[in-house]
Amino acid sequence: VTDGMEFVQFHPTALAAPPPPGEKPTGRAFLVSEAVRGAGAKLVDANGDAVCRGGMGDLAPRDQVARDIYAAITRQMSDSPAAPQHVFLDAQAVEASGPKGKGGFALKFPTIDAELRRRGIDVSRGDLIPVAPACHYQCGGVCTDLDGRVLGTTSLRVTNMGRTRKSKQRRSRSRSAGRRASGEERAPERVLVHAHGPSSHHRHAQPIAGLFAAGECSSTGLHGANRLASNSLLEGLVFGKRAADAAKLHLKMVRAEGVDVGELALDAPWPFGFDVEACPGEVDVAKAVEESAMQVTAELQALMMSHCGIVRTTRGLLRAAEGVQELGIRLSEIRASGGAVASRVLALVECEFLHAYAREVVNAALHRRENRGLHYNVDHCGDQTEGLEVARSEVVS
Question: Mind listing the pLDDT tens digit for each residue in 115-124?
Fold first, then answer.
C-alpha cells in the first residue's frame, strides 16, 4: 500500500547555472540553502521585482516560495519566450554584513560561495544567483507500521473472497490464545495513524512478513502533507533503528521455526554491466536498450514537471496519466527488444522504477480533490474540503 504520494516537495532555490566549461552536467541539483534567505537575501525576477509578495515574504514555507517562483517564471515566459526559466537571489545584504561592509557571503556560506565561483558567479562583485525549484523530497511512500514493517492489503483480499468478519475474528482470537499458551515471542503490531488522514485501506492493512522500509521510501506519517527541513534525518534515525530491531526479531523467530534463511550476500557481484571481450554481441544490444531507456527517462521527467509539478491542474494530471501509460508501453517494448540482456541494463531498471513512481504520484494527485500541503491544484482553489480520504493505491504483484 502506498500513501501520500501526491505530496512531493520542491526545494525552492536550486542553483540554475551551468557547470564550468568542459564539465559534464551530473543531473544533480546544487541547493542554495534557505539559510541564505534567512540571512537577508531576497528573491527577484528578471526585472528586479520581488518574487515573494505574501505576508511572510522570502521566509514563507518552501511550498509557498516554490509556487511564488513558479508564478514569476510563468510571467517572465509569457512576456518573452526567450526570458530565463529561473529567478535570482540578490545576496548583497548578506555580502554587506561582513567586516567593513563586505565579504559577508563567503564568511557565512563558504561552501555555496566556492561552488558559485566555480560556475563564474561572484557575489562580492554584485552578481545575482540564478535559482529555480527542484524536485527534492517525497513525503509519502510505502506504508509502514511504527516498526518499519511494510503494510499490505492481504486482509482486504481475503474478505473480498467471501470470508466473514466474524469468522476472521474467531480465527484471530484462536491464534492469539495459542501463541499465549505456547509462550511464543511475537513483535507487537503497532500501526501508525497518518497525520494527513488515514483511509479505509490503511485501517485494514496488515504487515507483510519479512518486508521492512525506512527513510524517504516509506510513509510513516511523520511529515504529514508537508516536510519541515531536516525532519527526514530524524525520521531516518528513529525508524531506521526500529526497523532494524524488528527485522532482527523477525529473523530470530523465523530461524526458531526451522526455516533456513541462508546468509546475507554482502559481497554479491554487481548485477549490471557486461564483459566487452566475453560477450561483444550483448554489449551492442545493451547500448541500444540503454539509449532508449534514457530517452524515456528524459521524456518522463519532462512530462511530470510540466503536468504534475509545483502547480497542477486536473487537465494536466489527466494528460500526465495518459503520458505515463504511453511511456509504460514503450518501456515494455524496450525490455522485450533486449531479451535476457535487458535485466542487466541499469538505465532500464532505473527508468522502470521511475515510471512506477510517476504512476503512483499521478494517481494519488488525481484522487485528492482538495489542496493540502504540497499538493496544489488550481482547479480546487475555491473548494477547500476538509476530511477527504488520502488517495491510495494497492500495490498488487
Answer: 999 999 999 9
For residues 344 and 383, give the distance between their C-alpha atoms in angstroms, rounded to a whole number.
48
Q: Of residues 28, 37, 53, 62, which has the active-site annotation? A: 62
Please enumerate in sequence order all residues whose Cβ is within 8 A of that of 377, keeping only pairs 6 or more positions apart, or say none: 312, 313, 314, 317, 365, 368, 371
Confidence of residue 276 (pLDDT cuts 50, 70, 90): low
* Contact predicate 59/81, CB 8 Å: no
Cell 517525497, located at residue: 138
> Which residue, among 308, 6, 2, 1, has the nearest Cα to 141 in the 3D structure?
2
Angstrom distance (rounded) from CA 331 to CA 328: 5
Nearest to 131 by CA among 52, 218, 190, 22: 52
pTM: 0.80
Strand partners, 375: 372
- The tens digit of pLDDT for each residue in 226-258 reads 988 778 898 999 999 999 999 999 999 988 888
Question: With 80 as the cut, is the pLDDT of residue 158 above it?
Answer: no
Confirm whether 62 is a catalytic residue: yes
- Angle formed by the axes of helices 314-338 and 280-307, nearest 10°: 180
CA distance 285 to 166: 56
99, 41 contact by CB (below 8 A): no
